[in-house]
Design goal:
By secondary structure, the chain is an alpha+beta fold. It is built from 4 helices and 6 strands, in the order E-E-H-H-H-E-H-E-E-E. A 6-stranded antiparallel β-sheet has the order 2-1-6-5-4-3.
Length: 112
């Protein structure tokens, strides 16, 4: 299965599947739901080309939530186990029946 993370309409991480656990370095049962500040601290991202930290609002997850539009970027993800993994992060809003969003979904594709 594909590594997937689910966020509510406010950007709170509410679930990630077993495939994502491998890349994030911890099970969902161990971490539980996380506020935006918590997941931004737990999942540090670096530029693939420069190795520099990608600040919070520049991460694909934050861009999708802040702009309510799809965002994608190749990054080096430092998981909760401290291991660095090159991944492509694709984040998209989930549209609800009414106005606004019902939440957000992110896919992680392991690059190397």
């Amino acid at each position: 299965s594909s590594p997937v993370l689910l966020f509510d309409e406010g950007g709170v991480l509410v679930f990630f599947n077993e495939a994502a656990e491998v890349l994030l370095g911890r099970t969902y049962d161990e971490s539980g739901s996380m506020s935006r500040a918590q997941w931004m601290a737990a999942f540090r991202m670096e530029s693939v080309t420069t190795g520099l930290d990608i600040s919070g609002p520049d991460t694909p997850l934050a861009k999708a939530i802040d702009n309510v539009e799809p965002a994608q970027r190749n990054v080096v993800l430092r998981g909760m186990d401290g291991v660095r993994r090159q991944v492509t992060v694709t984040a998209v809003p989930i549209k609800g029946v009414g106005p606004g969003t019902a939440g957000f979904m992110a896919w992680l594709s392991h690059s190397a």
